[in-house]
Write a structure and sequence with these properties.
Layout lengths: L4 H15 L4 H15 L4 E8 L3 E8 L10 E3 L3 H9 L3 E3 L21 E9 L2 E10 L7 H19 L19 E4 L1 E4 L2 E8 L14 H24 L7 H14 L2 H12 L4 H18 L3 H21 L15 E5 L4 H5 L6 E6 L7 H9 L3 E3 L4 H4 L5 E5 L4 E4 L3 H23 L14 E6 L7 H5 L3 E6 L1 H6 L6 H15 L3 E5 L26 H7 L1 H14 L4 E6 L5 H20 L7 E8 L8 H7 L3 E3 L1 H8 L18 H17 L3 E3 L7 H10 L3 E4 L4 H9 L3 H8 L11 H10 L5
Parallel strand pairs: 9-10, 10-11, 11-12, 15-16, 15-22, 16-17, 17-18, 18-19, 19-20, 20-21
Antiparallel strand pairs: 1-2, 1-6, 2-3, 4-5, 5-6, 7-14, 8-12, 9-13, 13-14
Helix pairs in contact: 1-2, 1-4, 5-6, 5-7, 5-9, 6-9, 7-8, 8-9, 13-24, 16-18, 17-18, 18-19, 20-22, 23-24, 23-25
Bound molecules: phosphoenolpyruvate and magnesium ion.
The site of phosphoenolpyruvate has 10 residues, from strand 16 and helix 21.
Length: about 750
């Protein structure tokens, strides 16, 4: 048999048999006879997986026919079981000497020495085994192995069509029609219910056997060329915003799309008589089977990339290379992707995206930042989710418990429908309070501001009734950009933010880069302790040109209006003064070039390094305002990494030392008449916010979604009574004061 004519002829004959109007079992019987003849083998048998992880002999040419439907092997038992379990071919010139060899007398297979078994795979899962045997010792040629694998793919198609065995009996996860529950990490809270949309749609291969091989070869080559060009274009796109991990993935794709081994295998599969689509799937089957066996995470990752690439290639073959962003989407879309760039998410119609699920991702990934800005519930790091989800599946995203439900039962859907209705009611109640001032029962007025970082955040001010933006994290724009933003782009952005704020206060924080906030276009710095490293104001004071560039943009954007700016991670007053000096120099420049200056410039600082609190008198006489960053302050106060989940509940902000420390700060600022805000995450949690008010804070900045719940808490509390209650707490030695504070809230009927 020649390298290609054999399988081609075989496939041609198989197609004829598939077209015959006969029962499935007869079809299978004919196929094994055909394969045996074509491969000059004395035996050809098909085993299929049955319930109980048993492989049942379904058809044979050459073995005892009486053994059909009688002989069964466990997964992993015998050579057949080995092939099935490991999902890889075994080519054995001397099968009886193989350690897995198991003799089944009823089959009458004793005279056969050599054996070639290949798994029958679909979607990387094993459905059965196809095997040929010969009396003589022979090593089957590579092309014979290929041919048998190709044929097994056609058999797989027959199996999943349900003609031979009841589909429900086959491997559990094969048909994606059962409920599935995944658990991951919540990157943006919220609950959503809707229909699955795959960011990169899958293509179902309908036609397996080629009519015209030359044409299939041409189609494959054209699709590969298109795929490469598309990847190059994505990487080169100046205007598209590709960041961090997305760029890495694309770089890997580019490398793999030029991988000679991969292309060679695709071409061979086409030459053996498959359509171009089926050839891609055939190679993808191998990749997936290897992926399931692989335990080394790095190799798995690589195989995953190949799998993704195969999906992309299939889409090019089907003439559907785009993502789903511009398709007609359901109004309750839950988007699924392996990973995604921020710009890709922004490409979708926001009003239709109710949730986002990523197989990978991290809380600091840029897509997570954008999802939070858009308030889209997002769960990431759900392993294997893309293997389980099918387009149009019902989906529930529970960002509170970090759970994902695919195809949930009616009962679970009802539970969540109820939950969603309650949430909607609560949201409506918060919305109704939008214009109501946040005043405590005893008349204390609290300013509620919101945190933001992108232009898409700004409309939340109107929606939530926030009195301004207490923290605008300017680094986010730099992080999601593909290249260093140009001065004019920055000016335009800051101007749009100020326009959107419509006269309300916006506090711009200058670049807080370094640590976990890395620019995709800057060389990452190797540091032993990045959180304590060359970051934020330290970096920008050492690179004053960068800080001045940003200040220049802010001054230009705020022409004739008020400008509030502050510096991150200041550890000593001298640092603050040095940074302020740069602002003065830029103001001098504005005067020199006769540019209209802002009406008023207020320069403040974040207080998030404990050392700065030991210079409060000096600080408060040189800063126009201060903003306590409790996220970093907490991490440095307790020497406890804010990103380490193992330490999440180790220390409590609501503890005597932390609250005592915060009280010193707020008391000093008030005594000096310097405005003080707290803008860390704690400000957005009702119980913590209540405590902050008890400490004396009257200005809090938080995520937009927290404004409603915090305001509701405020209007129900009495600040004076709480302060009196807390007076006795600071000196205690408890690990946490959370319970006492919660008790206070319960007794006073405060909604925390
Ligand atoms: C903080 O540290 O509390 C803060 C608000 O800044 P970021 O979370 O951006 O570090
Ligand atoms: Mg900080």
């Amino acid at each position: 048999m020649t390298a290609t004519a054999g399988p081609r002829l075989l496939l041609k004959r198989m197609r004829e048999i598939m077209a015959e109007r006969i029962a499935a079992q007869s079809r299978l019987d004919k196929i094994v006879t055909l394969i045996a003849a074509n491969m000059v083998a004395e035996v050809c048998s098909v085993y299929l997986l049955r319930p109980g992880r048993q492989l049942e002999l379904f058809a044979t040419e050459g073995l005892n026919k009486a053994a059909v439907h009688a002989t069964r092997l466990k997964l992993g038992e015998g050579i057949i079981g080995d092939v099935a379990q490991n999902a890889r071919p075994l080519n054995l010139p001397d099968a009886p000497s193989h350690p897995s060899f198991l003799y089944k007398p009823e089959t009458g297979e004793d005279p056969y020495q050599s054996m070639l078994g290949v798994p029958i795979l679909r979607g990387g899962r094993t459905l059965g085994v196809l095997a040929v045997q010969n009396r003589t010792h022979r090593l089957y040629g590579e092309e014979e192995v290929e041919a048998l694998q190709t044929v097994s793919m056609v058999l797989a198609e027959m199996v999943v069509s349900g003609q031979l065995v009841d589909l429900a009996e086959i491997d559990e996860g094969l048909k994606r029609d059962r409920p599935w529950r995944g658990h991951g990490t919540t990157f943006c809270e919220g609950i959503a219910m809707g229909r699955a949309v795959l960011h990169e749609p899958r293509v179902r291969v309908e036609k397996l056997i080629a009519d015209d091989i030359a044409e299939e070869r041409f189609k494959l080559d054209r699709a590969v060329a298109e795929l490469r060009a598309a990847i190059d274009a994505m990487l080169a796109a100046e205007d598209s915003v590709i960041a961090g991990e997305t760029r890495d993935v694309l770089e890997a794709y580019r490398m793999f799309a030029n991988d000679r081994g991969w292309l060679q295998r695709l071409r061979e599969a086409v030459n053996s008589g498959l359509t171009a689509e089926a050839a891609v799937e055939r190679v993808q089957n191998d990749t997936r089977a290897r992926m399931l066996r692989q335990t080394d995470p790095l190799i798995r990752e690589r195989l995953h990339d190949f799998d993704d690439l195969a999906n992309r290639l299939l889409r090019h073959l089907a003439g559907k290379a785009d993502t789903s962003a511009h398709d007609a989407l359901p109004t309750d879309t839950i988007l699924f992707a392996r990973s995604m760039g921020p710009a890709e998410l922004l490409d979708y119609d926001r009003t239709k995206i109710k949730g986002l699920i990523l197989e990978e991702g991290s809380p600091t990934s840029h897509v997570a930042i954008v999802a939070r800005a858009l308030d889209i519930p997002l769960i990431g790091r759900i392993e294997g989710v893309l293997e389980q989800v099918e387009a149009h599946d019902w989906v529930i995203v529970d960002g509170e418990a970090s759970d994902l439900f695919l195809r949930p039962s009616h009962e679970i859907r009802e539970v969540y429908r109820h939950k969603l209705a309650l949430r909607a009611q609560r949201q409506a109640a918060f919305a109704a309070m939008r214009t109501r001032p946040a005043v405590t029962k005893d008349g204390e007025v609290v300013r509620l501001l919101m945190n933001a970082g992108l232009l898409v955040d700004v409309p939340h001010m109107e929606e939530t009734g926030a009195e301004g933006i207490g923290l605008f994290r300017t680094e986010l724009q730099f992080m999601i950009a593909h290249a260093m933003p140009r001065l004019q782009n920055l000016i335009d952005l800051y101007k749009s933010v100020l326009d959107g704020a419509d006269g309300k206060q916006v506090v711009f924080r200058t670049l807080d880069l370094g640590g976990d906030k890395v620019l995709p276009y800057a060389r990452p710095l190797e540091e032993e302790n990045p959180a304590l490293g060359w970051r934020a104001i330290r970096m920008t004071l050492d690179r004053p040109a960068l800080l001045r560039y940003q200040i220049r943009a802010l001054l230009a954007a705020a022409k004739g209006r008020d400008l509030d700016l502050m510096f991150p991670l200041v550890a000593e007053v001298a640092e603050f003064k040095a940074a302020r000096e740069l602002v003065n120099r830029e103001l001098d420049r504005v005067a020199r070039i006769r540019q209209t200056p802002p009406r008023k410039v207020r320069v403040g600082t974040m207080l998030e390094v404990p050392s700065l609190a030991y210079q409060l008198p000096a600080l408060l006489s040189s800063a126009d305002f201060i903003s306590v960053g409790s996220n970093d302050l907490m991490q440095f106060f307790f020497a406890s990494d804010r990103g380490n989940p193992r330490l999440d509940s180790r220390y409590d902000l609501l503890s005597p030392p932390m609250l005592g420390f915060l009280k010193t700060i707020v008391d000093a600022a008030k005594a000096r008449g310097v405005p003080v805000t707290l803008c860390g995450e704690m400000a957005g949690r009702p119980l913590e916010a209540m405590t902050l008010i008890g400490l004396g804070f009257r200005s809090l900045s938080m995520a937009p979604a927290s404004i409603g719940p915090v305001k509701q808490m405020i209007v129900g509390m009495n600040a004076g009574r709480l302060s009196a209650f807390m007076a006795d707490l600071y000196g205690r030695s408890d690990h946490s004061l959370r319970e006492q504070l919660r008790q206070f809230a319960d007794n006073e009927n405060v909604a925390v």
